């Protein structure tokens, strides 16, 4: 399959609505969203593609449709032959543990395509991932340090590395002459802060929030994916009840990177979003729920359990930095 075709299909998967997931109903729903001449796959090949995307952890089945992994979502949106396209495809490839293990040991060697899932092979060759020499294809060496980060961070359970998010911010952001505010405000102390600011040095956040729409969609999408489409405190799952809540409020952010970093967010229902936003609740550095004095005798009413703890997979180094900010500046105690 050609890269452009694949990207077109991903856009359709992202928007596809179906409440039945047999191969036939998904194919029918897909057909209704595409011109027949654009569908170059047979029904059987289509099913293989869908099975592959699910097995490689790049697509998840929801109640009434599909959820693309963040890297594939970025890949579908990226422009032709851009570095963003190549990096997001690389990240999509290593969603599967076996592929990640292969890249960890062979990062600096000529790539044997045998280790890449068959469906990705023709697509990967169409991206900037490779420097083509006469006989072999090798990774573009100057990008190796970024790959290393992605590999390490994926291992730690991060959705994508902070530096990669800086790349995403840089490329998804419309570079117009804009008005910024908060240009003097500090950024949280990221582990790779210097490198991140090398990639995207712009200080402040735009006065007009609408101009960062693509990034806001990405922020939302990351959090829905990470928290499995439900409130991380009470598991309420009706989509219209859910809010992607900033931990360090957007109004306090000193750089667009931290405003758009999903580690600076939690997925909460409207009730718990309000309590968190207003500082009635917070989380300690292990992820235990903190409840302010005022609500101590009203825990049941607000569905707050004393011993509740955020799952450790959400407690990566960057999210801990943002929660520390919340405890110090927002939490009422
Ligand atoms: Zn809730």
Q: What is the overall pLDDT average?
A: 86
Cofactors and ligands present?
Answer: zinc ion
The coarse overall form would be globular
Contiguous uncertain segments of 5+ residues:
none
- Taken together, the total number of domains comes to 3
- Rg, alpha carbons: 21 Å
Strand count, sense and barrel status of the largest sheet are: 2 strands, antiparallel
What descriptors fit this protein?
two-stranded antiparallel sheet; 14 helices; globular; 3 domains; binds zinc ion; 10 strands; Arc Repressor Mutant, subunit A; 333 residues; mainly alpha; 41% helix; single chain
Question: If you had to describe this structure to a student in words, what would you say it looks like?
Answer:
The chain is mainly alpha-helical and 333 residues long. The chain has 3 domains: 3-74, Arc Repressor Mutant, subunit A (Orthogonal Bundle), CATH 1.10.10; 80-159, no CATH class; 165-329, no CATH class. 41% of the residues lie in helices and 10% in strands. It has 14 helices and 10 strands. The model has no long low-confidence stretch (mean pLDDT 86). Zinc ion binds at residues 231, 233-234, 236, 268-269, 271-272.
Topology:
Blueprint: H1 3-15, H2 23-31, H3 43-55, E1 59-61, E2 66-68, H4 70-77, H5 83-93, H6 97-106, H7 121-124, E3 130-132, E4 137-139, H8 144-155, H9 162-172, E5 180-181, H10 193-199, E6 205-206, H11 213-226, E7 242-246, H12 256-259, E8 265-269, H13 270-277, E9 281-283, E10 289-291, H14 317-329
Antiparallel strand pairs: 1-2, 3-4, 5-6, 7-8, 9-10
Helix pairs in contact: 1-4, 4-5, 9-10
The protein binds zinc ion.
């Amino acid at each position: 399959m050609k890269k452009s075709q694949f990207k077109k299909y991903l856009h359709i998967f992202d928007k596809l609505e179906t409440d039945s997931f047999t191969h036939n109903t998904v194919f029918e729903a897909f057909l209704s969203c595409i011109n027949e001449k654009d569908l170059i796959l047979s029904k059987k090949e289509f099913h293989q593609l869908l099975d592959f995307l699910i097995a490689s952890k790049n697509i998840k089945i929801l109640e009434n449709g599909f959820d693309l992994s963040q890297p594939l979502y970025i890949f579908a949106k990226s422009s032709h032959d851009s570095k963003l396209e190549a990096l997001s495809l690389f990240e999509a490839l290593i969603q599967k543990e076996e592929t990640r293990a292969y890249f960890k040991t062979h990062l600096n060697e000529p790539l044997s395509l045998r280790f890449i899932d068959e469906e990705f092979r023709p697509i990967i060759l169409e991206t900037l991932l490779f420097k083509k020499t006469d006989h072999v294809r090798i990774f573009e060496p100057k990008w190796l340090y970024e790959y290393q980060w992605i590999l390490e961070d994926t291992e730690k359970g991060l959705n994508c590395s902070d530096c990669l998010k800086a790349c995403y911010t840089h490329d998804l952001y419309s570079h117009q002459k804009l008005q910024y505010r908060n240009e003097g405000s500090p950024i949280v102390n990221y582990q790779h802060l210097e490198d991140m600011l090398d990639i995207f040095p712009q200080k402040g956040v735009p006065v007009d929030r609408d101009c960062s729409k693509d990034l806001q969609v990405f922020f939302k999408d990351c959090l829905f994916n990470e928290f499995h489409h439900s409130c991380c405190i009470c598991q309420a799952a009706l989509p219209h009840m859910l809010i992607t809540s900033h931990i360090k409020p957007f109004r306090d952010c000193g750089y667009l990177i931290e405003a758009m970093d999903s580690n600076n967010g939690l997925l909460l229902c409207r009730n718990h979003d309000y309590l968190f936003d207003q500082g009635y609740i917070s989380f300690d550095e292990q992820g235990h729920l903190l409840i302010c004095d005022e609500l101590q005798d009203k825990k049941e009413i607000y569905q707050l359990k004393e011993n509740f703890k955020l799952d450790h997979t959400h407690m990566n180094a960057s999210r801990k930095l943002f929660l520390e900010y919340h405890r110090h500046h927002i939490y009422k105690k």
